[in-house]
Amino acid sequence: MIDYQTCIRYFENFRISLELSCFFTRITQSPKSYTLRKLTLTLILSLIVLALNAQSNDTPERLKYTVLAPDGSIALTIVDDSRDDKIQLEAVSSFYKYELIDPMTSELVYTAANKGTLGAFDKAKVLEGTYDLRVYTRSFIILSKIKVSAPPLGVVASNETVVINN
Predict the structure, then answer these.
(1) Half-sphere exposure of 47 toward its Cβ, with a 13 Å CA cutoff?
(2) Residue ranges per domain, the chain?
């Protein structure tokens, strides 16, 4: 989906290419092939502008990772939207607490109480690195390793998942 700013940038670049086309056709003006040269130059400049804009990567990303239970069903979904400051957690069953733990020091980095199946933690409050994510439900604990990285990627979940019954 193209946002408003991207659309404005496309139209501005197209307007600039048309102005350049008119400038170059005035310089190389000849009575016989004026229209053909103008059309050709306009098309070439427009294609160049579109090719340059197509290479820019300003589109927001919405990454979704699933954590599987031992039976193969989805136990937890981690959603990272580059437009949002928070990383969403969606569990199949209700959970009352979730924690991020540094695996090197076993230190608690982030914890939050929760009601229901949705939770979130702020990306700005967590440093870049690998963490153990623990989601506590009434009947089991969902464990997963996640890697919080710089803003373009956000969170990367690993396949190392364990569900512990209480």
Answers:
(1) 6
(2) 4-54, 62-165
Provide the H-helix boundaries in the chain: 4-27, 34-54
| Per-residue pLDDT at 151 | 52
Sheet with 86-91: strands ordered across? 62-68, 74-81, 86-91, 118-122
DSSP-derived letter for residue 48 is H
Task: Scan for tokens 């959603």, then name that residue.
Answer: 79
Mean pLDDT by 10 residues, the chain (166 residues): 64 69 59 68 81 64 80 83 82 90 90 90 82 87 80 49 48
Domain 62-165 belongs in CATH node 2.60.120: no
The pLDDT assigned to 166 comes to: 46
Where are the extended beta strands (E) located within the chain?
A: 62-68, 74-81, 86-91, 95-102, 107-113, 118-122, 129-137, 140-148, 155-165
Q: Could you give the C-alpha distances from 97 to 52, 100, 117, 150, in angstroms and in order?
A: 47, 11, 10, 25
